[in-house]
Known about the structure:
By secondary structure, this protein is mainly beta. The chain has one helix and 31 strands. Strands 1-4-7-10-13-16-19-22-25-28-30-31 form a twelve-stranded mixed β-sheet, with helices on one face. Strands 3-6-9-12-15-18-21-24-27 form a nine-stranded parallel β-sheet, with no helix packed on it. The longest helix has 17 residues, at about 1-20. The mean pLDDT is about 95.
Amino acid sequence: LAAAEKVMRQRINEKWMxxxxxxxxxxxxxxxxxxxxxxxxxxxxxTHLRGKTRIxxxxxxxxxxxxxxxxxxxxxxxxxxxxxxxQVADHVSMGPFCHLRKGAILDxxxxxxxxxxxxxxxxxxxxxxxxxxxxxxxxxGQNVNIxxxxxxxxxxxxxxxxxxxxxxxxxxxxxxxxxxxxxxxRGRTGAGAVVTxxxxxxxxxxxxxxxxxxx
Length: 215
């Protein structure tokens, strides 16, 4: 079985290379039969593409990346990351060491830094998520800055609760968003803020618990 698997893997890799995909090291690349890949995409070593995954054109996938039953747009760069049943639009960059779980949707131009995790959430166009952050059960608008260490506290021990963040919001480092909670457009949080109440648009909140500082 191992010998047969090796032969099939070689056939699949050769098919994609003849179709215009660059595979740096075919012996260290694992592509399952139902996967589709666009032209001019580069597959780096130790990459696993599994299930019904679809990869767009002119992407760079890997090294050390696993994509399972996910859709990836054009000109996407994924480094040492794991995607499971997720959707990634064009011009997204991720990694290293990012994790997209089931239901994660990244819109065009989103960037995820080191050790970012997203689950059952939507990140709008141009949003940037800093290092060591977790976003779960959230809807996030466009051009949002998610500071390093920001998390959504979405589980109260019994139920999952939603977080809603508007456009052009700035979340300071180590912000805790205690769901359910909403932050209006252009809202801001100070570093270390624990947000337990909705934040109106154009408002800065700071502290534990976070309180309005100024408009």
